[in-house]
Design brief:
Two copies of one chain form a homodimer. By secondary structure, chain A is mostly helical. Helix content of chain A is about 75%, strand content about 0%. Chain A has helices at about 5-20, 25-30, 35-40, 45-70, 75-90, 95-105, 110-135, 145-165, 175-190. In chain A, helix 5 packs antiparallel against helix 7, helix 5 crosses helix 9 (about 175-190) and helix 7 (about 110-135) crosses helix 8 (about 145-165). Chain B binds a DNA duplex (30 and 30 nucleotides) through helix 3.
DNA sequence: TTCATTGTATACCGAACGGTATAAACTGTC
DNA sequence: GACAGTTTATACCGTTCGGTATACAATGAA
């Protein structure tokens, strides 16, 4: 692993544990085994480092998600596919996933939220697209697509956090059964 | 309003908008119309100020919630009562509510999460208590109380954020119908 | 009046912050 | 070997950070 990648990895580790603002550039450089000017050789600023981190990890995720969100006439199947992408990504990149959620819910005027905005926007548009397509088939859904999509995203995120809370980071592992149960609960409630 | 209260109010405003770490003590003092030593006369540190802010606003909420979470044989009714307390509080203290959520999801080793932990713990215990009591009546729920309570908290929080996202801060106003619809969705899914 | 308590202001502290100027070492190409 | 471009280290910049020493008003009780 080259220096650039090692810096990104270290930054992820520290931002995940203590948050962007609480971590100094100095510490990131030291823990990466380089000095500060080296860090600034690769990234134009601390904020630039954060942006790079988000896009480098977020882009592959959004591409996979885009492929999963093509509606093929079965809402449950499509939602499961989307949730599966999230689950896969959470397994591969647990710390990034949790960091993303933290920034998703952070103060609107903070730097971290500004940085994560573009990713959040695209994520929401993907899920909205699913419900919009489904609303053509299922009339009773019409007009509530935004509510449902935000609700679905929140529910999946929530499940991630729950897992993270109870099983610690190494086990951010969501099984196929869990995915189906989650989507089923979203669609039919906790009773059935 | 005395200086102490004005400092708390200013801190809430700034923490809500930009986050705890990004706001300096200097700025809080200036915007409160006092100087730094005055701030340190009332609060022993910046972190102490945050703690005071959280407990002063959080305590009344938790007391109300405790009263609402007494299980009287009807799960839906009890969940509605709990959600109603959250909704009322969100209407009265919108910025605090959103700040609370942000800290709820923030990095585990950060100061802000450490500060909000006791409140989070008590909140979770209240809701868990409801599902535990209900599990005695409804056997099929047994063993899934933790999952349901975290799910319920997340769903309500989610709704708050959704409102905040779409209507901006002044309108963090959740109607009785919305509360019932939310609980109903939680219990029976989005179809019914 | 005296006295302690509460509350406020001026001015300052050392440390850490994000960021950079400068130059030396390394790398591959010709 | 000469050279250009890349990569690193030393040492420093100004600014802001959280926090405080000191002193001075204001207040109410004795």
């Amino acid at each position: 692993m080259d220096n650039r990648e090692r810096i990104l990895e270290t930054a992820l580790e520290l931002f995940y544990a203590r948050g962007y603002d609480a971590v100094g550039v100095q510490e990131i450089a030291e823990k990466s085994g380089v000095t500060k000017p080296t860090l600034y050789y690769y990234f134009k600023s601390k904020y630039g480092l954060l942006e790079e981190l988000l896009t480098s990890r977020g882009e592959p995720f959004l591409e996979e998600l885009h492929r999963a969100c093509v509606y093929r006439g079965d809402l449950k199947e499509t939602l499961c596919a989307a949730a599966r992408v999230v689950a896969d990504f959470a397994r591969k990149e647990p710390k990034f996933s949790i960091l993303f959620v933290a920034q998703y819910y952070s103060a609107r005027e903070s730097e971290v939220y500004q940085a994560v905005r573009p990713l959040v926007f695209r994520l929401q548009k993907e899920i909205e697209g699913v419900f919009n397509a489904a609303a053509d088939d299922l009339g009773n859904m019409h007009g509530r697509q935004l509510q449902f999509s935000l609700g679905f995203i929140g529910l999946v995120i929530l499940y991630l956090i729950m897992k993270h809370e109870t099983e610690e980071i190494k086990g951010l592992d969501i099984s196929e059964q869990e995915i189906e149960a989650l989507v089923h609960q979203f669609m039919h409630g906790i009773y059935s």
